[in-house]
Write a structure and sequence with these properties.
Blueprint: E1 4-6, H1 9-18, H2 22-26, E2 35-40, H3 48-52, H4 58-78, E3 82-87, E4 94-100, H5 103-110, E5 124-127, E6 132-135, E7 141-146, H6 152-162, E8 165-168
Length: 169
């Protein structure tokens, strides 16, 4: 069974306009259209020493992954979330937005990739209602790219509900 269903051409065009520089932020480049906000299992930015000494055991890794998964589930229950992938090459690259084929497919996709050695399996979402982009990232910290500071309050509410933290850059 397919995990994703392509959206209509009209919706693709609408979302492409709503999310400028999507490929740029996917490549972790700065964009004047977005501000970053982190979702993390840590209640503060780790110092270099804390980061270098963070070797969680299996139980702790599973707990951290569950917390981030819980956040993603709370987020997806409260607003529309869409996946995207890129088609084309480099400067001709464009996003293709897709909805989930079922709730089960969404739940599986939203589960953190864990100690994967590649970011190819990381979650990539847009939240059209909030004009926000959500990327799974490394070290139990995921990134929101937001276009309006007003959505931070809602993101913090979801974080509180799921036991993670929202840290501003």
């Amino acid at each position: 069974m397919r995990k994703f269903l392509n959206l209509s051409k009209n919706r693709q065009v609408e979302l492409d306009k709503k999310f400028p520089d999507l490929f740029k932020i996917y490549c972790v480049e700065d964009s004047p259209h977005y501000k970053k906000v982190a979702i993390t299992v840590f209640d503060h930015w780790l110092t270099r020493e804390e980061f270098e000494n963070d070797f969680p055991d299996k139980t702790e890794r599973l707990r951290r992954d569950k917390s981030l998964h819980d956040f993603a589930k709370v987020m997806s229950k409260n607003t529309e979330v869409l996946n995207f992938k890129f088609k084309g090459k480099w400067e001709r690259c464009y996003p293709s937005f897709r909805k989930f084929s079922s709730q089960a497919a969404m739940d599986i996709y939203l589960h953190p990739a864990g100690d994967n050695d590649s970011s190819d399996k990381f979650c990539r979402l847009v939240l059209p209602e909030f004009s926000a982009v959500y990327f799974e990232s490394w070290d139990y910290t995921n990134i929101f790219y937001i276009q309006d500071d007003k959505v931070i309050a809602q993101i913090k509410k979801w974080a509180n509900e799921s036991g993670v933290y929202c840290l501003e850059y």
